[in-house]
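Database export, one record per block. Field names are fixed; values are copied verbatim from the stored entry.
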Amino acid sequence: MRLRLLLLALGTFAVGTDTMVMAGILGQVADDLDVSVAAAGQMVSVFALAYALLAPVLATLTARWRRRRLLLTALAVFTAANALSALAPDYPTLLATRVLAAAGAALYTPTANAVATALVPPERRGRAIATVLGGMTVATALGVPLGTYVGRGDWRLTMWLVVALGALALLGLAVFLRELPTPAPAVGLRERLAPLREGRIVAAVATTFVFFVAFQAVYIYLAIVMRPATDGEAGRLSLILLVTGIASVAGSWLGGRVVDRWGVRAVLLAASSVAALAFAALPWLGLTMAGALVYAAVSPLAGWTFSVAQPHRLVSLSPAHAPLLISLNSSALYLGMAAGGGAGSLAMTLLGERWFPLLSTALALAVLALAATTTARRPAPLQARPATEDAPAQRETARVSSPSDD
């Protein structure tokens, strides 16, 4: 059981490294392909937008696939796409391979989270999700700096590193993951998207989106707001980013345990409150290195604790639609990442380099209000529609449908 969860996490580690390492090799990509750094940066936006748009669509199209087959296919597509990225002769080809890699990632990550909840008893569901999401956080702390270092002379080596990680996860799951119960029979798109007619599910997805706009609006421009503390020194900024990565791992680990113990509602309210306080204090914390390190420890801790709670919340609302709902949550997360850059840039223009985190403060408070008003203490899971068509899915996910905080 533990080995299978770790192999699922290895896959998300590969996806997380691929998603976030691009920022560290943009200069090399731009020089090699003779484009501007801004153009090279579009690789990140293209990947995020493709992921966000494809996740729910692919979840619907593959709803009748067996989970093991889906995981292996997703990793195969993701790994092959990164190999094509490493071999891309020009910029347009590279962008096309990033869309293909996003398709593989959009298939894999939500399915891995849904499978993790089916591998454990209900009382350990939060920790199972945290283990799989932990691959993403470890990618922040380890995969990104490792990939950046490997690609310092040739960015294509970074792509081959991601290929190796994806291939290793693919091989491990092929050997050790046994077949899971057959999911629901294929139904029409209208029926498959029925949960989106439920207000609580729409509110949950919206909560993820707003929170990650707030988080990314600061994270993308962290070097700017921390400039008074770092005095422009790369070594100091690297230390801040290292602490950020370690705190992300700790937040994912902590999130799984506090969700299982306290329930989703309490975790969402606490995490969004802490995030709002951290964003509000950043204009002052960013003035000194000690303050910057405090922010680097607190903000990701709250952010990744929140990230673990949200999939748990959605699975609890409608267990029969778990893969689709987690894919929608992932879409909202990636859309928030894509929108965060624009929101942060706009806030910086209007408020200045020191005070722009106040926009994130306001957004985090909006998340707090949204979570407080749209979660209940003991919600009943929503009924799947239509019941006869989704009965197999209900049997598949029966192990994860226990009363818990929304």
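Remark 1: The chain is about 80% helix and 0% strand.
Remark 2: The two ends are 26 Å apart (CA to CA).
End of record.
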